Amino acid sequence: MIILIIFYYLVLSYRFRLSVGAVGLCNSNVPRHLDGEILIGGIFPIHERSKVNTSWTKGPPTEKCMDFYAPYYMAAAAARFAVMEIREKKYIDLGNLKLGYNEQEFCNSPVSAAAATLNLTQNYKVMAIVSGALSSSTITIGPIVAHYSIATIATWATSELLTDKNIYRTLFRTVPSDRWQSLLLANMSEWFNWKWVGAVATDDSYGRSGLQIFINELKDKDICVAFETYLPVNGTKERDKFLEQLASSTVEVIFFYATVDLDLKGFFQTADDKGVSPKVWIATDGWADISKEFYNYSSVASVLGVTISDKRLPKLLDHLAKFDTIQKHNSIHFLESFVKWMCKTKIITTQNCSDKILCRENIDNKTINLIESAAKNYLQSATNYEAYTTYIAVYAIAQALKDIQECKSGEGILDDGKCPTIDKLDRWQLVPYLEKVNFSDNNGSSFQFSEDRQTNPSYIILNGKPSEDGIIELEKVGSYKHGKLDINDSAIYWGTGERQFSLSKTGHSKIILVDGFQILTKCADIELNWKERKSVMDSKETADEFKGKLEMMFSGAFSCLKIMTGLEVGLFEVLSQFTEPKSYVEIADAGKLKPRYNQVL
Q1: Which stretches of 383-474 are DSSP H helices?
Q2: Taking the model in full, what pTM does it have?
Q3: Considering only Cβ atoms within 10 Å of each terminal Cβ, which end of the chain, N or C, has fewer?
Q4: At what angle do helices 314-323 and 365-382 cross, to 10 degrees?
C-alpha cells in the first residue's frame, strides 16, 4: 500500500508538467468537459510519441507530446460526439438523466496515461471510462481503475495479457485480443503456402505477446520462422543491427508487429540505406491503416495489412467538418495538420498557405464550402477503426445505464435480484451490467461483449495498389470472420511482379540464424522428416567457419533447429563435436537426444 501511495504521488506531481508542443495561430476551443449527473471519463492521446527530459537537476522530469496523429484525434472526437448524441436523445433515451463527459488528454506513454487516469478517479461523478490508450499504457492503467472499481472500455489495446481478469478486473474492450490476429496471420501463411518467413515485433507487450502466439501457431502448421527479433520503440542501435543482417537474408516475407510508437519511416529509410532488398511486409493492425505511406521505399515491394473491421461514421465527419474548422475548431493540432494537408494538396492556393486562412474574421461562403468539403476528405483519410470502437464504447455505457434505469426489483443482476439505484449508483455496480449489454447501433449492427469482455474477431485485409497516376491507395483484398479466412489472390499487388510471392512458397534451402551462427538448411522443405534421414546442412563450411559470421542473435531462431531435432542444448556444444557439417540425425545423436520421428517441417 505504501508503494502504491508513493507511485500515485509521483504520477500526480508529474501530470502537471506535460507539454503539447507548438502552439498554432488560432485559439483552442476544446469542449473537454460536459457537465452532468453521471460522467463518462475519456483518456486519449492525440500524439504518436513523447519525449521525456529525465534530468533531475531542475526538478521532476517533464514530458513533451510529439507528432500529432490524426486517427487518435478522430477517436477522441468520436467519444465527444457520441456523448453529444446521447444528450440529444437521438438513438437512446436516458430520460431525465443528464449524461456528462470529462476528457483527459495524455502523452502517448504509460506514466502520462496513469496521470490522466488518476485525474478521473478523483472525480466522484465519473462512473466509467473510455480509453484510447495503447496496450503498453492500458497494462499500466488497468490495475488503477480496478482499484477504484471503475468500468473501463479500451478501444485500441489488443494485447492478450489484458484478458487476465484477476488483474484487469474492470476492463472491457471493443476490439478483439491479439490472439485472434495472430491466428489469422498464421492462417494467412498457410493460405499462400509460405514455408519460410521472418518475424519482427516491437519490444513491448503488444509486439511480444502477439508475435509469440503467431510463432507457436506456425510450429503446428509446419512453417519455419527464419528469425524472431524484437526492436525497442526508442533507440536505433538494435534496429540498425537487425537491418544490416536482413540485407543479407533471402527471406521474402516478413511479419511485422508494430504500432506508430515505432518510427516506421526511420525504419524503412534505414532498410533502404542498408541495402535491404524489396520484400513483402505483413502489417498488423498497429500500422496497417498507414501502410500505403511506405511504398516509396525500395525495401518495400508490397504490404498486406490486417486491421479490425470498422463501420464508418458519416455524421461524425459532417459534424467535425463544420465545427472543427474555421474559428470553431476543437484542436490546434488538428488545425495545423489539416492546413498542412490542404496546402500540400493545393486545395488552398493562396500565396501564404497557412492556418491564417481559417482564423481570420471574415471568410466568404465559397471558401467556407471549399474548406468543409476538403475537411471531409481529410477526416475520412484520417479515420480508422478506433473511431467506431470508441463511439460504440460510449453507447455501451449508455445502454448499461438505461438497463439499470429499467431494472425491475427481483429481476436485477445483483444478488437476490436487486437493482442498483441510478441516482445513487456505485461504480462497481456498472460492471455486471456492462457484461450483459446487448443492443443495436444506429447502423443496425448488434453489439455485445464476449465472455472475456472483448468483441468477436472480425478483420479485413488491406493491400496498397498504385493508381494510374502512381498514387498508392489501400484496397480490401480479404476478410476474416467467424474463424474463416477469405482472400482474393488475384486482387493483390505484389510489387515487383510475382517474385516475392513465388519464392516464398518454394522449399529451397534457406539461411537461418541459430545461436549467432549462419546455417544453410532445408527448413522450408516440407518433405524433410526423420525417417528419410535427409541431410539438412548443405554448406561446405566447417563449424569453425560458421562462428563469428553473424553478430546479432535472434531470440527465437533456435526454435527451427529445436523443432527438427528435439535439441535442448546449445548449438555451440553440438557443433563443437564436428569438423564439418553433418545431418540433423548425427547432430542429435552427438547431443545424446532422441529424434522426433515424423516431425514434418
Answers
A1: 385-405, 430-435
A2: 0.75
A3: N
A4: 140
